[in-house]
Design brief:
Blueprint lengths: L12 H14 L3 H10 L1 H15 L9 H9 L6 H22 L3 H7 L1
Helix pairs in contact: 1-2
């Protein structure tokens, strides 16, 4: 008698496609990939939580393509300090948007 457990889960077609792409890239089966992900779920979840805190977002961006596009297309005169400043500005704008969505924006604007 096997001590292994069976886990069934329903996922969307895009998740299956992503699993298949990663499995093919690694040269393993979908089942093997899922087993590896589950075997490392504790450390991977810890990594995701760390990234969520570092990126200060609920939607973690793990793809570097956007960063590379920005580096290629930003003005040559941009310095890291300016990029940090723009990041802070965008963070502030996002916070203002969240505040307005909650209906708190009018009260806070009147108090400033």
């Amino acid at each position: 008698m096997s001590k292994n457990q069976f886990i069934a889960v329903r996922v969307t077609p895009d998740i299956v496609k992503s699993l298949d792409e990663v499995a093919a890239h690694r040269g393993i089966s979908r089942s093997t990939l899922i087993r590896e992900l589950l075997a490392h779920c504790h450390s991977f979840y810890h990594f995701l939580e760390s990234e969520k805190a570092r990126q200060q977002t609920d939607r973690i961006i793990l793809d570097g393509n956007l960063s590379q596009w920005i580096l290629k297309n930003m003005p040559e005169s941009m310095t890291p300090d300016w990029v940090h400043f723009l990041g802070e500005v965008m963070h502030h704008v996002a916070e203002e948007m969240v505040t307005k969505e909650r209906g708190e924006g009018d009260e806070q604007s009147a108090n400033r």
